[in-house]
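Practice record 12: protein with coenzyme A.
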Amino acid sequence: MKKIRKERDNMTIETERLILRPFLETDAADVLEYLEKPAVNCFACMKLNSIEEAKEEMKKRVGEIEYYFAITLKDTGKVIGEIDAYPEPGEPHSDESAPKDTFSPCWMLNKAYQGKGYAYEAAHAFFDYLFKEKGARRIYAYTEDYNTSSQHLCEKLGMRREGLFLEFISFVNNEDGTPHYENTYQYAILKKEWDK
Ligand SMILES: CC(C)(COP(=O)(O)OP(=O)(O)OC[C@H]1O[C@@H](n2cnc3c(N)ncnc32)[C@H](O)[C@@H]1OP(=O)(O)O)[C@@H](O)C(=O)NCCC(=O)NCCS
């Protein structure tokens, strides 16, 4: 059962075992644990090299109160990961008047807390929040063809696999300096599908 609370200007989303809340400056050490070595290439640019860098990063995140959440354990308060998605126009090449009713989530858990169902619990509550509180019409996710954990999570959330884009995007370079292109699956779910 999910509870959404608005405390001052801050949203918190509560599930059975988790609280999703905005980041605090004091989260630096917990975040460094999983961003010291980002697990997948798509998060390579988020790498943090020291506690000082982590503290600077937290200062940037503290103003994010609606769309960027720390995933914390209800029991201990530890930050075990993060989830975010921002409103964007759904139609490609749309102009400024297009409704921003589409969201594409990023999710990431500290390796020590994977395989316990926390990602599903957090993502399910976050999707519910986006569809019911934030006007989402469509949520889509990109995941690389080798990222079976993320694909599995998409499927558990009821997302449809919409396509495979070959050599779609590059996050890192090959040894010879050329871009290393990855094959990317797109998954999506509509509000009317979620409501069912
Ligand atoms: C993608 C990612 C968030 C998925 O995390 P996860 O922990 O594997 O996902 P889940 O929460 O679905 O949990 C998986 C397993 O926990 C197990 N589990 C253990 N205890 C459980 C419980 N109490 N309740 C539910 N599941 C539980 C289940 O067996 C479940 O597997 P199943 O769905 O086959 O039954 C994680 O692998 C990750 O952070 N990867 C690195 C970052 C990344 O790749 N991000 C996406 C980029 S596209």
